UniProtKB/TrEMBL annotation:
Its EC number is 6.2.1.3. This is Long-chain-fatty-acid--CoA ligase. Gene3D superfamilies: 3.30.300.30. Keywords: Ligase.
């Protein structure tokens, strides 16, 4: 997603399977598993991700939606 300081920031969209999952625990996990620049700065936990009629996640829609939310906040 667009970011004022670096141009872009990593944002992840997560659907919880475990109710004990928190943004903090997810970022901590990512810090242990990923290179620093890949660790998400923003986390959005959702009930579900947008899917096509065939049941596949609409991956191309997610970045557009994230940009729209950022633009609406400005």
């Amino acid at each position: 997603v667009p970011s004022g300081s670096s141009g872009e920031a990593v944002k992840i969209f997560v659907v919880k399977k475990d109710s004990s999952l928190t943004e903090e625990s997810l970022v901590t996990f990512c810090r242990r598993q990923l290179t620093g620049y890949k660790v998400p700065k923003l986390v959005e936990i959702r009930d579900e991700l947008q899917k096509s009629n065939g049941g596949k996640i609409m991956r191309r829609e997610i970045p557009d939606e994230a940009r729209g939310k950022v633009d609406n906040k400005a």
